[in-house]
């Protein structure tokens, strides 16, 4: 274990570091379904939130209480009633909701007060702030159904919430709001979380739910999860789905994600609370674990600029260290940055390559082709290669070539042919390292 651990932990920690830098000081609104608490996952989830808080992320937590209210109603012999997925809140249901909310807030605050040694909460100090931050109005009578004490969010006191999270408190919101006359309304967790994220213009809205996310094939529950859904695609999907009645219906959370993104929230997520550490996996890994709805695709392939030098250096350094790539100094990359193409996801560079032209020979060298181990076998190498080929054609080149000592077969599979080093353009031949004995492979551009 002592031999293996550093070799796994250190690369992992370095891979996480860009996300730590990226999200420090950002605002996340987290909607937690009451089913998460009913499933006994509160303590582990709170520990994950405490880690996010320790990394400087500003948190607003909105809890649901659907199963807890249903349990209270069943104990009183009172039936739970819904219409169109919204609870009908009569006087008895309102009392049960208030009791459930009070108990859950106590449990959540107690969970954030943990500090046992050898746990993620050791030495953690998370101050939880609650209050009457929400103004509500009644749902009213819809299609002949009187929703009585059920309401929707009218206004969020975003200034007060912002002051609380800016002094490193975690704001806890229950799905209750009050009218200007003091009347209480039962709200939905999803409505509260969405309205709060919009009011704060949060960087992320994350729902911890009973479902895994949106599958690539909606008719096949075994198909992979679509980890990134463009807003336009999400809207088209939502329009094609039947109106949701239960939280497990595909459109139930998706409609709130779409609403939030349309109103300026950068990213909205649907995550499965049944997966341990789901929120950490979503925030700190390349593809995440659930479905993210975003106004535009986060992954982009583009020509590099001076701002990308640091990311390129961080990407290629491990491959230079193990001898896969020839070492390049920062000054060299800064000088040649216009030759580089990078692929990035959410601001983090995961792949790069450079094209050095030899116009007198109508060819160019593709150098420093690198894809992060985190995303290998996902097609990023092919995407970069295609972009390099496009750049070469634009420059009037007839071919591109590479020098490699370890990845010869990858290039051969993609149309490269091995040639003698004497084939190289004179200017490149003079710089060829005969001791390294790199293989030279050429690809003709049609």
Structure overview:
- The chain has helices at 5-23, 34-38, 42-54, 66-75, 91-112, 158-166, 189-200, 231-240, 250-262, 278-284, 309-321, 330-335, 380-394, 408-412, 426-429, and strands at 27-32, 58-63, 82-83, 86-87, 127-129, 134-138, 141-142, 145-146, 151-156, 169-173, 176-178, 184-186, 204-209, 228-230, 267-272, 291-294, 299-303, 340-345, 348-358, 363-371, 399-404, 417-419, 439-444.
- The two termini are 52 Å apart.
- Helix 7 packs parallel to helix 9 (250-262).
- An 8-stranded mixed beta sheet has the order 5-10-2-1-13-15-16-14, with helices on both faces. A 7-stranded mixed beta sheet has the order 17-18-19-20-21-23-22.
- The protein has 15 helices and 23 strands.
- It is elongated, with a radius of gyration of 27 Å.
- The chain has 446 residues and is an alpha/beta fold.
What is the fold's blueprint, element by element?
Layout: H1 5-23, E1 27-32, H2 34-38, H3 42-54, E2 58-63, H4 66-75, E3 82-83, E4 86-87, H5 91-112, E5 127-129, E6 134-138, E7 141-142, E8 145-146, E9 151-156, H6 158-166, E10 169-173, E11 176-178, E12 184-186, H7 189-200, E13 204-209, E14 228-230, H8 231-240, H9 250-262, E15 267-272, H10 278-284, E16 291-294, E17 299-303, H11 309-321, H12 330-335, E18 340-345, E19 348-358, E20 363-371, H13 380-394, E21 399-404, H14 408-412, E22 417-419, H15 426-429, E23 439-444
Parallel strand pairs: 1-2, 1-13, 2-10, 5-10, 13-15, 14-16, 20-21
Antiparallel strand pairs: 3-4, 6-9, 7-8, 11-12, 15-16, 17-18, 18-19, 19-20, 21-23, 22-23
Helix pairs in contact: 4-5, 7-9, 8-9
């Amino acid at each position: 274990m002592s031999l293996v651990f550093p070799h796994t932990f250190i690369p992992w920690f370095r891979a996480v570091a860009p996300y730590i830098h990226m999200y420090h000081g950002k605002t996340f609104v987290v909607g937690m379904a009451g089913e998460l608490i009913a499933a006994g996952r509160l303590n582990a989830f709170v520990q994950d939130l405490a880690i996010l808080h320790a990394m400087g992320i500003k948190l607003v937590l909105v809890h649901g209480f659907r199963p807890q209210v249903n349990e209270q109603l069943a104990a009183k012999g009172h039936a739970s009633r819904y219409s169109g997925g919204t609870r009908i809140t009569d006087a008895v249901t309102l009392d049960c909701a208030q009791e459930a909310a009070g108990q859950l807030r106590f449990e959540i605050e107690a969970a954030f007060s943990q500090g046992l040694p050898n746990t993620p909460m050791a030495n953690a100090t998370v101050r939880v702030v609650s209050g009457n931050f929400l103004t509500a109005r009644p749902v009213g009578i819809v299609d002949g159904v009187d929703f009585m004490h059920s309401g929707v969010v009218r206004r969020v006191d975003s200034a007060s919430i912002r002051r609380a999270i800016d002094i490193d408190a975690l704001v806890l919101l229950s799905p209750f709001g009050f009218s200007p006359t003091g009347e209480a309304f039962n709200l939905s967790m999803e409505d509260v979380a969405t309205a709060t994220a919009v009011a704060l213009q949060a960087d992320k809205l994350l729902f911890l739910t009973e479902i895994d996310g949106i599958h690539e094939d909606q008719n096949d529950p075994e198909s992979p999860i679509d980890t990134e859904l463009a807003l336009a695609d999400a809207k088209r999907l939502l329009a094609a789905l039947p109106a949701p009645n239960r939280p497990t219906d595909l459109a139930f959370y998706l409609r709130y994600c779409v609403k939030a993104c349309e109103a300026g929230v950068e990213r909205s997520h649907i995550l499965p609370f049944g997966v341990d550490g789901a929120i950490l996996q979503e925030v700190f890994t390349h593809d995440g674990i659930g479905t993210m709805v975003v106004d535009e695709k986060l992954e982009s392939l583009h020509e590099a600029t001076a701002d990308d030098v640091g990311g390129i250096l961080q990407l290629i350094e491990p491959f230079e260290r193990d001898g896969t790539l020839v070492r390049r100094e920062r000054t060299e990359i800064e000088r040649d940055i216009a030759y580089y193409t990078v692929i990035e996801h959410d601001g983090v560079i995961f792949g790069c390559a450079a094209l050095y032209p030899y116009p007198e020979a109508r060819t160019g060298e593709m150098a420093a082709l690198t894809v992060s181990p985190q995303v290998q076998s996902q097609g990023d190498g092919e995407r970069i290669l295609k972009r390099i080929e496009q750049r070469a054609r634009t420059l009037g080149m007839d071919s591109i070539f590479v020098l490699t000592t370890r990845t010869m077969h990858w290039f051969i599979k993609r149309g490269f042919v091995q040639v003698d080093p004497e084939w190289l353009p004179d200017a490149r031949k003079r710089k060829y390292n005969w001791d390294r004995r790199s293989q030279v492979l050429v690809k003709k551009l049609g």
